[in-house]
Amino acid sequence: MALISIEELYKSFGNFRVLQDINLEVEKGEFVTIFGPNGAGKTTLIKILATLVSPTSGDVVVNGFDVREKPIDVRRSIGVISHDTYLYHELTAVENLRFYGQMYEIECIEERIRDVISRVGLAHRRNHRVGTFSRGMKQRLSIARAILHNPVILLLDEPYTGLDQHASAIFDKIMQQLGTEHITRIMISHDIERGLELCNRAFILNNGSFVNEVTRDKISSIEEYRGVYEHLVTGEQ
Amino acid sequence: MIVNHALYIAYKDLKTEFRTKQMLNSMIIFSLLVIIIFSFSFADFLTDQDLITMVAPGILWISFLFAGMLGLSRSFAGEKEEGCLDGLKLCPCERTSLFQGKVISSTVLMFIMELFTIPLFIVLFDYTITGIPLLVLIILLGTLGFMFVGTLLSALTVNTRTREILLPVLIFPVLIPVIISSVTATSKILTGVGFANITEEIQILVIYDVIFFIVAQLVFEYVIED
Predict the structure, then answer these.
(1) Residue of B90, B105, B222, B223 for testing the chain A interface, max A β-carbons within 10 Å
(2) Buried b (16+ CB within 10 A) or exposed e, A12-21
(3) Which residue does chain B place closest to A74, by CA atoms?
(4) Which of A75, A89, A95 sits opposite B92 (nearest CB)?
(5) With b meaning 16 or more CB within 10 Å and e meaning fewer, what string describes B90-110?
(6) Which chain B residues contact residue A82 at CB under 8 A?
């Protein structure tokens, strides 16, 4: 059974249809990247999976839980990493993680904090206020926050925004480590090169619908895929 | 448990606030300034006890509510930075715990501000201190009513660009029963009357608080959704 299952999903804001006839199945341990231009509906799709936005119609099941009927169980199953870090600048790294750990009712919380903060390489800054961190460090701490409760699914919403090359490389390394733990990942991105590098399957979302789906092994080169993307999104060859 | 989650949120808010004191300092200074400005404005009438008895309770509540507005407008707006509001909404708990947590933290800040304001008010308006338990009761009920409505509307306006303007415009008409009852009861208490003379105001405040607490529990989930 798929870990994430979306069937005939539609989402409208008023009369404006953002998503239409979305169907998607993601298996355990898969890394799926969804590309698309601004306004394609990528963030709305992630927000629906994260229970932040309700679908207008269709079925969305995450880890066996319907997003409308069991939103709290869905939230317990997922971790979200976004361009926003969801971190409080006035609190230290440990205090931020402790707060989220309490909200997720994690047992042995201090031990878990020590573990995740070491994994993202921030043990030496654990008692420093987040406001003093660089953008890359905040994003690494954001990964620690997202994996604190051992989610089975990670939703990544443009996680590379504002990261320099070094910070992006560290981020990729952590993502690859998470892949070895069979954590299912769905990422939305504009960055075709980086998105393809990590994924098993890639989708192109345009005007609220999937217009292309391909497995990574079918993509012979990034340039070729970029050509397909530009053709489908802008009509250029 | 909802209550636990609410307490975690309130503790986090208060810890953040006591570390920066951005909001608390502004609220205290603003409320003290209101009391001082009004006491100077009415300096010529301070010997006329009847006149002061009529206007001073209103001045006290104006200082409470206007200073409280400063805190309320930042209650949810502060969570928008770095997307923390979404971070809270992603937590596996009932969304009403977010409302309750915000009410608790905002109420604590409001009480601290009131603790600073009341002594100055008593000194500048030359009141003798009588009926303190009743005054505390009225301030508690009035503040809770303000916080239940204010926190709900603060969440409602958090995604609007003009929230600082919109929030007071929305909140004060809804607060009229709280303002009138609190001012009337405070006025009576400061003239030295007992509990029996303010039961009507207490009833209105209790009913108002209960209604808006329940309403907030029922609608907050929809108010906070994107």
Answers:
(1) B90
(2) eeeeeebbbe
(3) B92
(4) A75
(5) bbbbbbbbbbbbbbbbbbbbb
(6) 83, 86
Measured between CB atoms, which of B20, B82, B93 is closest to A72?
B93
Query: With an 8 Å Cβ cutoff, are A86 and B82 in contact?
Result: yes
User: Average pLDDT for residues A209-221, to the nearest whole number?
Assistant: 89
Strands of the sheet with A78-82, listed across from one edge: A78-82, A153-157, A184-189, A31-35, A201-206, A209-215
Question: Which of B91, B96, B98, B100 is the best mutation test for A, with the most CBs of A within 10 A?
Answer: B91
What ipTM does the predicted assembly reach?
A: 0.91
Q: Distance from B106 to chain A by nearest Cα, in Å?
A: 18
Of B127, B154, B10, B145, residue with least CA distance to B69? B154
- pLDDT per position as a tens digit, B185-198: 999 998 888 888 89
Q: Tell me which of A84, A129, A155 to substitute to probe the interface with B (most B C-beta atoms closer than 10 Å).
A: A84
Question: What are B175's two structure tokens?
Answer: 């607060």
List, for residues A163-213, the tens digit of each pLDDT value.
Answer: 778 778 888 888 888 878 888 999 998 888 888 888 889 999 999 999 999
Is A107 touching B (CB cutoff 8 A)? Answer: no
Q: pTM of the prediction?
A: 0.91
